[in-house]
Amino acid sequence: MKFLLPFLLATYETHITPQDASIMFGDPVQSAEWSMVPDVIICQGAPVKPHRVKQAVGYWSALGHDIGEVIEADANDFGCLRQVALNGEILIDLASQSFRMGEHIAVTKTWVVKDTKEILRARIEITSGWGNSDRVMEHELGHALGFRDFNQTGHIMHSDWSKGGHKFKGLERKQENNYSKENILNGI
Fold it and tell me: For residue 148, is pLDDT > 50?
């Protein structure tokens, strides 16, 4: 079974870029979903403060998405040391050596079962100086939840940070929650 794993999994890489892409119409696309509630692991040295990650988690929770605990990893955390998220984790870390500096602010990689479109794990890499910036964590957590870039001016999932904003059209999870814009923007 070990050698079948590469054929069963797909890895998606998504990022915020400084370049513009064509405008999209319709609703954002969620290409995969978690079947479990993922925890968020913040590696030591990640360029983001825990309170900022909690705000971003609150944003998605207000939209009806389930995200578990936000955990500050210790220096010996297995996933952080090996730069690999474990199943059921969204790992947040400083950009690695393979990161294309100057092209991206952040990159999210998700591991998805091809047949079921189930997300198993995700890894967010952020360049130094951008982790606590407005909308970066919300955008990257959106990718970790399976959403693709949605290039509508002012949308949280816009691929160009300078053209993005706080619009969340199409990101609400269909549940019995009340999604007020005020609660979402305040991370409640």
Answer: yes
Q: How many Å apart are CA 123 and CA 102, to the nearest integer?
A: 19
Residues present in the chain in total: 188
| Beta carbons of 44 and 73 less than 8 angstroms apart | yes
Task: Report, in angstroms and rounded to the nearest whole number, the Rg of the chain calculated over CA atoms.
Answer: 16
- Could you tell me if 67 and 60 are in contact, meaning their C-beta atoms sit under 8 angstroms apart? yes
Please tell me the class of the 2-183 domain.
Answer: alpha beta
Interatomic CA distance for residues 176 and 120, integer angstroms: 26
CA distance 100 to 163: 21
Torsion of CA 74, 128, 95, 93, to 10 degrees: 30
Query: Using 50, 70 and 90 to split pLDDT, how confident is the model at 7?
Result: very low
Nearby residues of 98 by Cβ (< 8 Å), 6 or more positions away: none
pLDDT tens-digit readout, 115-126: 999 999 999 999
Residue type, 147: F
pLDDT of residue 13: 55
Evaluate whether 18 touches 162 at the Cβ level (below 8 Å).
yes
Residue 147 C-alpha from the chain's centroid: 8
Residues 6+ apart with CB under 8 A from 187: 54, 55, 56, 57, 58, 59, 61, 62
